[in-house]
Specification:
about 180 residues, alpha+beta, 50s Ribosomal Protein L5, Chain: A, 5-stranded antiparallel beta sheet, globular
């Protein structure tokens, strides 16, 4: 059992039941999956970018990414139908739990000038998205050895019904959100 799963069962479930009045442990929301995306727009300028980004995403997630392709041609972006435009990895189960644990305890503290996560990253369904400007925040990527610096986006998909429930769930799991400042 992973650290995150233990924390969820021992701390999060009782607290969520107390706050939101769930009667059953199975009714308490949880993280369903984590999706990591890398936009590969630089592939037009540098053909090696896609293979380097694939390599770094494989190191970070422990899973080979899926290459996403353009559905339609867009002449303004010099994009042809079927061109590789990004990479995507979907994590579930134990791999997802280990990744989220690493994200909270290792990657976020390594981000330069980190002052907490914004609460504006939630969508109306209670999913949360975090953007990283550099993949070097993850310990598997050595800054001095990284040939290409690229950003990535981590989307955390939850089973919650609202932003409020999702924020409380992620807070209890250990996500460091910024404290809201009230202007007097």
């Amino acid at each position: 059992m992973t650290r995150l799963r233990k924390k969820y069962k021992k701390e999060v479930i009782p607290k969520m039941k107390e706050i939101f009045g769930y009667e059953n442990d199975l009714a308490v929301p949880k993280i369903e999956k984590v999706v990591i995306n890398v936009g590969a727009g630089k592939t037009l300028d540098d053909p090696k970018f896609l293979e380097k980004a694939t390599e770094s995403l494989t190191l970070i997630t422990g899973q080979k990414p899926l290459v996403t392709k353009a559905r339609a041609a867009i002449s303004g972006f010099k994009l042809k139908k079927g061109m590789a435009i990004g990479l995507k990895v979907t994590l579930r189960g134990k791999r997802m739990e280990e990744f989220v644990d690493k994200l909270i305890n290792v990657a976020l503290p390594r981000v330069r000038d980190f002052k907490g996560l914004s609460v504006k990253g939630f969508d109306s369904q209670g999913n949360y998205t975090i953007g990283f400007k550099e993949q070097t925040a993850f310990p598997e990527i050595r800054g001095e050895k990284a040939d290409f610096i690229h950003g990535l986006e981590v989307s955390i998909i939850t089973t919650t019904k609202s932003k409020k429930e999702a924020q409380k769930l992620l807070e209890l799991l250990g996500f460091p959100f910024k404290k809201e400042e009230k202007n007097a």
